[in-house]
Amino acid sequence: MIVVDTNVIASMWVPNDMDEWVYKVLKKDDDWVVPLLWRSEFRNVLSIYLRKEILELSVALQATEEAEQFMDTNEFEVNSTQVMILVSDSSCSGYDCAFVAFGVLVAVVELVSGQTYEDFLIQHFFEPAGMSHTGSYGQHGGHALREFTVGAGPEIIGLPNIPPNWGPTPWLVKGSGGMYSNLDDLLKFYHFVRSDQLLDARYQHFFRQLSVNLDGSMRGFELFSIAKPNGDTVYLFINNKGETGALRKVSQALEQFMMD
Question: Which pLDDT belongs to residue 168?
């Protein structure tokens, strides 16, 4: 049995570079299970292909029918109470907790704003901050493939992990991350959230106090940063596969240096 996400299922019906890999997985184990939410995500994927005129309506309707028939007996509801109890009472890793928190955040943003999560970020963060090289996996922001650097985090994957190669990707699949950016845009983002332009005074202090952060992706870049209340900041941007323990030693040394 394999619990699959919508991206895997969609790869069997929409043009992408994952289909060969997906059929190999299916051949190895065809007992796939999914939460009921996959149907909404699958429709969202197809709607993107329709609006970009990659698929015709008749093809999208046929894909919907075939995919729903394919997964018909392997769909299961997820008990919300059990999920919340697990989050509050389990030994889930920090990544697991971040993934759940991200999902809740996105759901709240979309319900309250009436926008997609991606559109909300563009309108309220990226455009006001002047960030022109940041977006979600599955997007390319009008940039050519050659403009994207191949990420080389602790789990380097190479060219297949370049964001445009993902194709349209639901936020539930991406989890707490699933975005691309560059150093200049990241600096603009930090400056924006610490400025008076975004948050009320009651929230600003959370971003203006002493903070030490390690951001990035297991398969992309790593960004170590320290920010002091007086505005002094240190950034260490890394995009080359290295020994994780060595990176941690360097970040600890920088942290101690700035604290002294």
Answer: 66
Q: Please give the backbone phi and psi of residue 170, each rounded to the nearest 5 degrees, phi first.
A: -60, 150
Closest among 112, 113, 138 to 41, alpha carbons compared: 138
What 3-state class would DSSP assign to 52?
Answer: coil
**DSSP, res 151:** P
Interatomic CA distance for residues 40 and 185, integer angstroms: 32
Residue with tokens 């997906």: 22
Distance from chain centroid for Cα 43:
19
For the ranges 28-37, 68-77, 84-93, the lowest mean pLDDT is seen at 84-93
Model confidence pTM above 0.90: no
Question: Domains, the chain, ranges and CATH?
Answer: 2-78 (3.40.50.1010), 115-259 (3.40.710.10)
* Under 8 Å between Cβ of 179 and 137: yes
